[in-house]
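::Amino acid chain::
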Amino acid sequence: AASVAKRYADLRAKLVNVSLAIDYGNGTVVWYNGTLVPKGSTLLSLTVLLAEVEYKVYPGMGVYITSINGVSERIVVAGKEGYSWLWFVYSESEGKWAMGTTAADKYELRDGDLLMWKYSHWKF
């Protein structure tokens, strides 16, 4: 019979360990540290696992998150100003947060990832 340690090692090899912050933009930040999800999981699947999420699907581009835990995108002036959910990944090498460069369903989680959704004000 396989030892518990061996069974754990076999299971752990199929998972990635990630941490996600949800920053509501009002001083409230909720962390989900040490979350284990199957290899191949995306930022979208992680977010749906941990929060109530609403999103739009744009064929060919991916999903666009419109609401997390009841905090919804708010457009002040169409195309000019609003509040939206943006995601970031922490870059160990640069020592800072970098804005995500793809849709949440296109970003495959890596073991040790430190990620954040931030409700952000934007203006052009």
